[in-house]
Amino acid sequence: VIRVFRAMSTDVAVTAERDEAAIAAQVADRFAAAEHRFSRFRPDSELSALNRARGPMRVSAPPFDALARARLHVVRTGGVFDPGVSAALIAAGYQRSFAPGALDRPAAAPPPARRGHLHEVLLDPASRTVLRPRHVQLDLGGMIKGATVDEAATLLPGAGAIDAGGDAVVRGPAPGGGDWLIEIEDPLDPARTLATIGLRDAAVATSAANRRCWRLGAVDAHHLIDPRTQRPATTDLLQVTVVAATAELAEVLAKAAFVLGTRAGRALLAGQPGVGAVLVGRDRGTTMVGALGVREGTA
Amino acid sequence: MRTDDLGRYVIAALALVYVGAWWSFAQQEPAPLPAVTSTRAVPRARAAASAVARPAARVAAPPRAAAPARVVQRRPGRIRTRSS
Question: Which terminus of chain B has a lower count of CB atoms within 10 Å, N or C?
Fold first, then answer.
């Protein structure tokens, strides 16, 4: 039995070998709590309060720990993953919850005059205080979705899976034994499966610009901001799927590789121990990184 | 008793009271130094503490999930990954 609820603008599916109703309820509460704390679209969220603060702000442990982990991800990706680019995301038109067509505008707004980066934010672990320069707006969106999937997976009593719209953790064998089968969607034809890989006790995440996208006049825009330009990334990739130990890491690396493009993205991923990936180019060519148990498809 | 003898007794009694009071004061433990010795630092420290915004007063308690999870029929053991 699979139980599904709606959170973070996506369907979250819970598969558990027992107590699935109770487990799904607990997982739903974790997602609701994370969304309440980290959503930049809710004025009463702790992240919104932090983005409004005009001075040092004492925060609870989850956002402080998330910002500390995000700093490590910034270093790991050479700054290509950066949650400090929210002002650029807003300038690109993503200022409210995404819905198809809801963000379309007649023209693009210029990027922020001053670039925002996470490394400009001061973190004091002793007092759990965050000091954010005014021009740095924070958005931990995808990383928090991955982190919440990881946290939810700890609630599984045994084998099972947490799947938040493609950011997933699988534990133990799949129902009936054997590996979980992860179908990678074709970004140009969502009805088609590009490849299927076998997975057990691991996480997977996918980044692409084909869903959270909108029009700014004659220009296409999407939610994956390149911190170097503060604009939606221009890349030769259509989609990146990453397999890693945690959904948070898979999400961060998929986004960074997408922004970097095929060559630099492959180099980044190849340098990460225990990571596998499938990169889909604009020419529909696929690039494999690491050892992945491909069962079907072209990858 | 003559008047000058009475004056001597009064002076002697006052001297005894003074010496006793001094002795009692001298036996007391010295008071600890104040924690903040700079009077300028106190208003600055108070201002800094009040400037640290505290989220508890503005952020409501985390909510429970809005609706219970629904049961769906999918192929078991299969997950479709995509951008979301």
Answer: N
